[in-house]
């Protein structure tokens, strides 16, 4: 199968009461690890790249690698652009073959966020791609996106309904207390707010900053209407840890294939565990 638009995948998850795992990938090995996990789990999967990763690897390279993976996999695979603010970059990625994009206008006033998000929706429709947008603002750090604690604000349920109707987006990222990066202490999530958003917004909802959340919190978010769970930090931590471990144990090693093989395996195992946690395993009939 070629790369797919995530709309049907996320709607099925919403109806089925589970979530699709969306994993940030950075290179060939992490991309292969996540797709291998999806195949092993029989789970639909979303590969995501941030603007920083697009800069690092190149949009065309990412699309080419993801396409090869999707064609060889017996599960549906999406390639999604995560947290894009620059509309030109969104155009470049759509042109290259990304099947989904996130426009992050969460730093803009509501009216301007609506106007620009509508523009992105029109661009994506032309290419048959889907659009995720964000309302509210998450704390923490992801690539060049850093938000201080005092700039964080939670998604307003009424505003979310207005925003979804005015923009025609396919999914909405919510801010309910999660943050990007590594948590210091256990985050307190506003489940009541999530429930209210899900009651007012008739779309798949997206949870960012899910790395490091207790499993019970993830399960509760899914039960309350989250259909896409973003995982970035957890994969980065396990990749770096396994590379360090392998190189420390074999200080003379210079063959990348030898130190990347266990690292890729570790990323695969972590992704697989997340897919199971999301309830996505076994959802693809093969
Ligand atoms: Zn995010």
Describe this structure in words.
This protein is an alpha/beta fold and 286 residues long. It has a single domain (7-277), classed as Aldolase class I (TIM Barrel), CATH 3.20.20.70. It has helices spanning 7-16, 28-41, 51-57, 59-72, 87-96, 110-127, 157-167, 191-200, 215-223, 233-249, 256-277, and strands spanning 20-24, 45-49, 77-84, 100-103, 130-135, 139-142, 145-147, 171-174, 179-180, 205-207, 226-231. An eight-stranded parallel beta barrel has the order 1-2-3-4-5-8-10-11, surrounded by eleven helices. The chain has a three-stranded mixed β-sheet with strand order 7-6-9, with no helix packed on it. A hairpin with a 2-residue loop joins strand 6 and strand 7 (145-147). It is globular and about 60 Å long. The two termini are 12 Å apart. The model has no long low-confidence stretch (mean pLDDT 95). Zinc ion binds next to loops. Zinc ion (ZN) binds next to loops.
Summarize the structure.
It is built from eleven helices and eleven strands.
- Ends: how far apart? 12 Å
- Could you please say which CATH topology applies here? TIM Barrel
Helix content: 40-55%
Q: What value does the Rg take, in angstroms?
A: 18 Å
CATH class type: Alpha Beta
Features:
single chain, 286 residues, alpha/beta, TIM Barrel, 8-stranded parallel beta barrel, 11 helices, 17% strand, globular, binds zinc ion
Outline the secondary-structure elements:
Layout: H1 7-16, E1 20-24, H2 28-41, E2 45-49, H3 51-57, H4 59-72, E3 77-84, H5 87-96, E4 100-103, H6 110-127, E5 130-135, E6 139-142, E7 145-147, H7 157-167, E8 171-174, E9 179-180, H8 191-200, E10 205-207, H9 215-223, E11 226-231, H10 233-249, H11 256-277
Parallel strand pairs: 1-2, 1-11, 2-3, 3-4, 4-5, 5-8, 6-9, 8-10, 10-11
Antiparallel strand pairs: 6-7
Helix pairs in contact: 2-4, 2-11, 5-6, 7-8, 10-11
The chain binds zinc ion (ZN).
């Amino acid at each position: 199968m070629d790369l797919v638009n995530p709309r049907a995948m996320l709607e099925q998850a919403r109806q089925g009461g589970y979530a699709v795992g969306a994993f940030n990938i950075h290179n060939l090995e992490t991309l292969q690890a996540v797709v291998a996990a999806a195949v092993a789990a029989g789970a639909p999967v979303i590969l995501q790249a941030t603007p920083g990763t697009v800069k690092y690897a190149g949009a065309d390279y990412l699309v080419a690698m993801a396409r090869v993976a999707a064609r060889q996999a017996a599960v549906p695979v999406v390639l999604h652009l995560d947290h894009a603010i620059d509309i030109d970059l969104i155009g470049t990625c759509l042109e290259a073959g990304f099947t989904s994009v996130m426009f992050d206008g969460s730093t803009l006033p509501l009216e301007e966020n609506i106007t620009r998000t509508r523009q992105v929706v029109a661009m994506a429709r032309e290419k048959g791609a889907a659009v995720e947008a964000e309302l509210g603002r998450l704390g923490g750090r992801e690539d060049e996106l850093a938000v201080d604690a005092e700039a964080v604000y939670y998604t307003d349920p009424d505003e979310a309904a207005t925003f979804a109707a005015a923009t025609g987006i396919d999914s909405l990222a919510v801010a309910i207390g999660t943050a990007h990066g590594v948590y210091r202490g256990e985050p307190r999530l506003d489940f009541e707010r999530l429930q209210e958003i899900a009651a007012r917004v008739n779309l798949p909802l997206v949870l960012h900053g899910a790395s490091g959340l207790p499993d019970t919190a993830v399960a509760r978010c899914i039960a309350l209407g989250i259909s896409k769970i973003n995982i970035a930090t957890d994969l980065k931590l396990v990749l770096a840890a396994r590379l360090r471990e392998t190189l420390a144990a074999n200080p003379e090693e210079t063959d990348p294939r030898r130190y990347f093989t266990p690292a890729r395996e570790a990323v695969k195992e972590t992704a697989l565990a997340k897919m199971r946690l999301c309830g996505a395993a076994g959802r693809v009939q093969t």
